[in-house]
Amino acid sequence: MIFQTDLVQTIADIVAAILTFLFPIVSPLGSWMVSWMEFVLQYFPQNDLTLYIIIFVIIVTAGAIVNIVWAGFKKPSFLVKAKKFEEKVEEAGELEVKVDKKAKKLKEKVEKAKELEVKVDKKAKKLKEKVEKPKKIKEKKAKELKKDAKELKEDAEELEDKSEELKEDAKELKEDAEEFGEKAEELKEDAKKLKEGAKEIEVEKAEELEEKAEELEEKAEALKEDAKELEEKAEEFEEKAEDLKEDAKELEEKTED
Amino acid sequence: MGRSFNILKGLIYLSVYITTTMVIPFLTFTYIKEMQVMDVNIILEQPDYERIIFWVSAFGLLISSCAFFTYSSPKQSIRKGTFALIQVIVNCLYVWSYKFSGATEIRFELIIEATNLGFIAIDVQNMVKLYMGVYFLTIVLKGYDFFDFVINRKTIREKRYKTELGGISKA
Lengths: 257, 171
Hints:
Chain A is mainly alpha-helical and 257 residues long. Chain A has helices at 6-41, 50-69, 77-131, 135-140, 142-256. Chain A has two domains: 2-69, no CATH class; 77-256, no CATH class. Chain B has helices at residues 3-33, 46-72, 78-100, 125-151, 153-165, and strands spanning 34-37, 40-44, 105-112, 115-123. In chain B, a hairpin with a 2-residue loop joins strand 3 and strand 4. Chain B is elongated and about 75 Å long. At the A-B interface, helix 1, helix 2, helix 3 and helix 5 of A face helix 1, helix 2, helix 3, helix 4 and helix 5 of B.
């Protein structure tokens, strides 16, 4: 007989031992479970399957709809926000490099303009000295002076052009710096929003991004100041060019006399 | 791997649960309703049989629908945790409903050639209580899972998409 074999008896003994060991621990829990289930089961219909069939259909339909519409493969909004924010930071970084290059170029132009200013100043001084020499020499060198005056006029015009160019560049730089400032402001706001929305996990990241935005804002501010300075310099050059032009005209008239 | 895979998984588990909670018990009770051992007819009482089949069908339907919802939901999602918990609770009711259907004290009448020799009653109440106690631990485990999914929702979602979409790198 199958129930008398040793193997089955051994298994039965083991199972019995486990059950006997677990019974005092698990049985009270089981009794408690039984009490609440007895209470709950009173409210379940006991002769009609209709309600159970309706519940079955509702749960299966709802499950199908919910898991088709929200399959769980859509990227969470907080990650979308963070990625967008990251792109913005990258964009701001590119803008920063661009503005830095422009500022460097402008500084070089200012240096060149300064050199030109010195050159023109020297030339003007030389010409004035020549004009003030005795009339004889003046007559002799009238032709030469005329040529120098013309040259001075050309230099002054060049300086004027340069200052005009500088002015435009400064204006452009100012605009860029303003745009840069706006971007930094936008980034700061985004970081704040991200910080509010993300709560625990992204807070560190948001703080980091906020710091970057603040840094960028400071840079934008500095660039704005640079642009203002350059604009002033350009205006100064323009005035100087105007003066030089007048001087050249005067010299020309004097040499003609 | 997408929506259709989720639904297919749900349907597979729906069929598994319909088989294990409804079809197999139904066939078993139908088989033992009129069992013959050594020319002795062992007959399960008719009202008991009907009650068993009713509760098996009722809770079998609820368990199967919950299983469909659970297994078609994304991994570690709150809805999966919720329906897994509901499923375990309904499963408890399913097992305990055997008591109401007479399954914790199964009575068989012994009949030889139209002579009723008496009955055999198998009392499995203590066994069911033990089983319920173990099931309580399963409820605790599912409850823990549910709270874990709710509390760590952000981390779970971030992890799920990090490998797929790159996530945010720490600058």
